[in-house]
Amino acid sequence: MSCPLPRRIAFVVCLALATTGCFPTQPLYLNDTGDLSYYLDRATAVEYPDVETAALEEVTQSHPPITVAEPNFDSFWDLSLEEAVSISLQNSKVIRGYGTPALQSNRVAPGIDNLVNGPAGAGTTYNVAVRESEPGFIGTPGQIQSPGFLVSNTSLESNQGPEAALADFDAQLTSSLSWEKSDSPRNTPADRTVPGSAAFFQQDALQMQTQLAKRTADGTQLFMRNVSSYADNNIELAPAGFQALRSVWQTALEAEIRQPLLRGRGAFVNRMPVVISRIGTDQEIANLEAQLQNMVTNIEIRYWDLYCAYRNLEAAKWGRDSALETYRTLKNKVELQATEQQTESRAREQYFFFRAEVERAWAELCDAESNLRWLLGIASTDGRLIRPIDEPLKAPVQFDYAQALDEALSCRPELRQERWEIKKRQLALAYSKNSLLPTVNAVGMYRWLGLGDQLISNDEPTPAFPDANSGAWNELLGGDFQEFRLGIEAGVPVGFRRELANVKNAQLKLAREMARAEDMELDVTRELQHALRALDTNYQLAQTNFNRWISTTLEVKSAKERFEAGIITLDVYLDAQRRRAQAEIAYHQSLCEFNKVISLIHRRKGSSLEYCGVQFDEGPWSGKAYCDAAEYARKRSASRELNYGWTRPEVISRGPNPDCGCDSPTGDCLADGNFDPAYDPSYAIPEEVYEGEMLQEFTPQRQLDPSPELLEELPNVQPQTLPEQKQNAPQGDSPNPADSQFQPNLDSTTTLRVVPQRATSVAGSVPGSAQGSVAKIKWEKMGLTKPDSSAHGTQATIRLVNHIE
């Protein structure tokens, strides 16, 4: 008996599947060459954007860095502190060094946490304009929200600018046009007595609507619309003859008003998104001001760091030169067998110690100069070496704590930003409480109607409907058909669960921001007290280190004579040299830290910009903007005032604070009726205005050991260039490459350089007429020359961008 063919095929297939199993196979393609060179075997890879950006010349044309091995440069760049601030602002589209200056934990001097280099978090001159122009949520064109519609307090803080928020009150124009063709059978018998009568419906329909909607600040919604329709059908062929004309036009003019009575009523609620958006702009300005104050303070700190680096270098070079002189003397004695080799080796070690200090000081100087260059926004190396020409203030400076604390609590931009946040939360809470009211809207509509054979009839006289050639608009304008409607719409959520959660959330956010503000005020007090304490500490340290420098200078002079006479050993003499160099470095460090604390105190008070003569200015708009503004101003001046007192919102802003700097673009600020000379370069300081305690030359107030006569012998080392000269190094050693660049000048005497534009009170009380500005003094009593008007320097201004040409 043979198996049928289908069974044999099925058996073979099952056997093949059982023995071979299942495995994937690639499909076969016609014209497959196997060339897969264009195939990408990975989904992501490192790629570079096709963007054309021009690099700055300060970057591409910069010179190799100045190092210890290659200390060469073309010339010095004598730079004042005012010039440094001005250059930085001119080159600051992005605020560099916006990290907050702070007191270091390991010393009483102020430092910088770090020079933050994060452009994404840095403020720019574009930030305010970007925040002002944020579009927010773009809704459906022509549509407005229903009366009483409110968003949550979270959505109220959506990132949108004032212009986007004001767009909710713009008029919305919508228009629609539709055509429809109908051809459907009807369950009606045809009337054989009427020619053409049929049991089906045919129609051409046209629908047009144009609407203009407007929402007012009080929440009222106004609508003006025109609705026109056209119908051409065969209903007149029906057995009963339902219509007079086969085609007909119908048009209507409607005016509708919808007024919320409870939820969503009032200008306070409906203007809230605009107010919140404007507060966001004010917060952005405060944030930008805080970062700008940080940058200005960091510039001054880095300026004094560079000054101190020069002083440290000179002190290290003095120690190296003294050690070299001692080494040479002892080497000659060793050659003459007048002393031991161990003594000469000890002097040689002292030389290499100070040489290492010179190299380290030189490297620190280059780093300090590079950091200052970065803050200035210029090339890291351009063949010049910045050299500070301003001397640090050596006179005692006093701040009234109560006045400084009051100024800090009023003017700190961080506190102002947080208080704006509290105001925003208060407004959001009041806004959310309005959602607890039920929705009750009053609705009114008035309509004119017209019907005709045509949309507009040109016949004279115009036939009346239902005659042929009658016009729908002709009937409408005749005013024969008028309708109106009045009504009340109400709605309320049972339980108000979402609304109560919204209010609770707004209350918690307000409580959180108030707690943050309290903590910030407490921290402001702590920071100010630390800075004031550091000011006094560094001044006392400067006095102490000054006396220490005098003592070690006299000790070195005496030790040299006694060592040459053989009374003391070499160890005592070398130790005196080392301590003398250390005392000089300690003095200049404490003096520079004293000046840095002054700048830091102004930052803690929020008066850094006023202290440095810096102010915000709004960049220019396009010519069309000024033309439109002038036209609106003329319209407003020609209009009549209408009192909206019953819908006037409460006060949101107090306006500019005259105690926290100048807000005038020209700098013409008046405080208590007195002109502030810090904003006028041509203002001459009166001679006889201050009868109080004068600024004194920096001399220790509480001297410990040195007599006043000895204080006059203290040399003042100036960082300036003398004719090149090289010292001979010990045998087998090459001269230091930095020797020819800086040589100490021991002939100049200590003098006080007064910078009249600094806004500090000094050595006693300053009269009230000088509030926060220049301390007016008698120059003759100080033995100084009265500076001319150019000593005030110029104002530095940072301009904020409004638009892009």
> In terms of structural class, how would the helical and strand content be classed?
alpha+beta
**Biggest pleated sheet:** 6 strands, antiparallel
End-to-end CA span: 98 Å
Helix percentage: 25-40%
Task: Kindly report the average pLDDT value.
Answer: 75
Order of helices and strands: HHEHEEHHEEEEHHHEHHEHEHHHEHEEHE
Low-confidence stretches: 104-113, 662-794
Main sheet strand line-up: 4-5-6-7-9-10
Strand content range:
5-15%
Radius of gyration: 43 Å
How many DSSP-defined strands? 14
Shape: elongated
* DSSP summary: helix tally: 16
Indicate the topology:
Blueprint: H1 5-20, H2 57-60, E1 75-79, H3 81-90, E2 101-103, E3 110-112, H4 127-132, H5 162-166, E4 172-185, E5 200-215, E6 221-233, E7 247-260, H6 267-270, H7 272-335, H8 341-376, E8 384-388, H9 401-411, H10 413-434, E9 439-452, H11 472-478, E10 482-491, H12 497-564, H13 570-605, H14 608-611, E11 614-618, H15 623-638, E12 670-671, E13 674-675, H16 708-711, E14 796-800
Parallel strand pairs: 1-8, 11-14
Antiparallel strand pairs: 2-3, 4-5, 5-6, 6-7, 7-9, 9-10, 12-13
